[in-house]
Amino acid sequence: MTGSELTNVKSPRVKAARRLTKRAFREQDRRFLAEGPQAVREALKLDGVPLDLFTTAEAELRHPELITEATLKGVPVHRASGEVIAELTQTVTPQGLVAVCRHVHVPLDALDEAVAEPRLVAVLAHVRDPGNAGTVMRAADAAGADAVIFTDASVDPYNGKCVRASAGSLFHLPVVIGAPVAAAVRQLKERGLRVLAADGAGKHTLDDVDLAGPTAWIFGNEAWGLPEEILAEADDVVRVPIYGQAESLNLATAAAVCLYSSARAQRVP
Amino acid sequence: MTGSELTNVKSPRVKAARRLTKRAFREQDRRFLAEGPQAVREALKLDGVPLDLFTTAEAELRHPELITEATLKGVPVHRASGEVIAELTQTVTPQGLVAVCRHVHVPLDALDEAVAEPRLVAVLAHVRDPGNAGTVMRAADAAGADAVIFTDASVDPYNGKCVRASAGSLFHLPVVIGAPVAAAVRQLKERGLRVLAADGAGKHTLDDVDLAGPTAWIFGNEAWGLPEEILAEADDVVRVPIYGQAESLNLATAAAVCLYSSARAQRVP
């Protein structure tokens, strides 16, 4: 524990962390905030990623193992008031733990090195809702994906809501940020992946396509799906079949269904 | 269009609608609010369900077909100010259309009559987050489920956030509210459905179980899953396999993966 409890939201240390709630400053500082015990626990597993940990006295009592872990790893722990923690989070009921982390993403051209033989990759193109994006990262991780790529027109994965919705998955698998769609698709094809665009206008349904081989899925915008030029770049456009009266699925649930269909086809004979 | 524009949030008509933002009044009046063009469109397909439609001048211009439809069906249309609409909705950016609807759910003991041969049913037990519950309804509808059952400890499906997340599906399939879990499970078993509890502690994974027959899925609470007594009532406890490092899936994405696995197994040879 360093020094006395931080109670002044205008103190330099708090201000330096608080600016990370804004995308421009996250990019400038190459840092972001991970909030809540789950995210902090996963961040602490990566050496050099958590740079500072802010905690309330209450959270310290509730999660002593995280404080111990941070201390062992040489991450400075700062006791802070609830008010200070609230300044750093966008949640209605903050859980009293916030870690300042350094960026963890990899550049698109380093992905080849980061993943030897990719078999399942999720690409988020024009996904704008941070909750959806985080939920897709979590589903991709659960389905055993090798990487997640955020294209240049997508939400910032370091957005607080996105980090929270990812439930730690942001720290689990290689994440690429800001890749131009065309470059990402070209690279994935070169690596031998079949690139499938998930879109309600697809000619084929999930049930008609063979998903046993290495596959990259492209997921589009919540409201208007994927633009023509991306549909054209894909090897195939595939829709989740709708058996009832619903017009469509929510983006994150559709992505989970696609990714798990691939995971199953790649594993179950 | 009836009368002049409603601008007073304290007018009796607005107050009568506004009280429906509270669960106790929804139950007392047996009415609820459906917000946005998609929900209003689906509500208008059911005779006698929409009782009043509030619209801003802007929304009227954007969705003239809905105003025409309401008028043809004898649903009174009330022009209202943006401020009045904002009073009736909990959205950050209301879309200017709110319908007062009568309840559409069916009692548990009327479900047998409503659905001749159920093959896929979703049961929400202790689901508390309205967004999750609505997303599960939408996924169940998309997967061709025959009914959705909210047990007595679950969120109110008429909650504004839940109606919105269901994207119209609340109006598409029979929804049971407030059923005791044990009674629901008994009835589903009597109808010949295999009752599967979706839980991370399941012995079997989705890939190990034969889902071709009539199936009811029970989904539990976001944080703590399903209680022992429900796990004991189920024919089997099944987990979505986790192939990566994620601890679990978000409730709604897990539900979508389970429901689509059933839908596929029941259709694809």
SSE blueprint:
2 copies of one chain form a homodimer.
Chain A: H1 12-18, H2 23-29, E1 31-35, H3 37-44, E2 50-55, H4 57-62, H5 64-72, E3 77-79, H6 82-88, E4 97-102, H7 111-114, E5 120-124, H8 130-142, E6 147-151, H9 160-166, E7 175-179, H10 181-190, E8 194-198, E9 204-205, E10 215-219, H11 228-233, E11 236-239, H12 251-267
Parallel strand pairs in A: 2-3, 5-6, 5-10, 6-7, 8-10, 8-11, 9-11
Antiparallel strand pairs in A: 1-4, 2-4
Helix pairs in contact in A: 8-9, 8-12
Order of helices and strands of chain A: HHEHEHHEHEHEHEHEHEEEHEH
Main sheet: strand order of chain A: 7-6-5-10-8-11-9
Please name the fourth-level CATH homologous superfamily of the largest domain in chain A.
SPOUT methyltransferase, trefoil knot domain
Q: Determine the fraction of residues in helical runs of chain A and give it as a percent range.
A: 25-40%
What is the CATH architecture term of the largest domain in chain A?
3-Layer(aba) Sandwich
Anisotropy-based shape of chain A: elongated
End-to-end Cα distance of chain A, whole Å, is 53 Å
- What is the alpha-carbon Rg of chain A in Å? 20 Å
What value does the average pLDDT of chain A take?
94
Beta-strand proportion of chain A: 15-25%
Tally of individual domains of chain A: 2
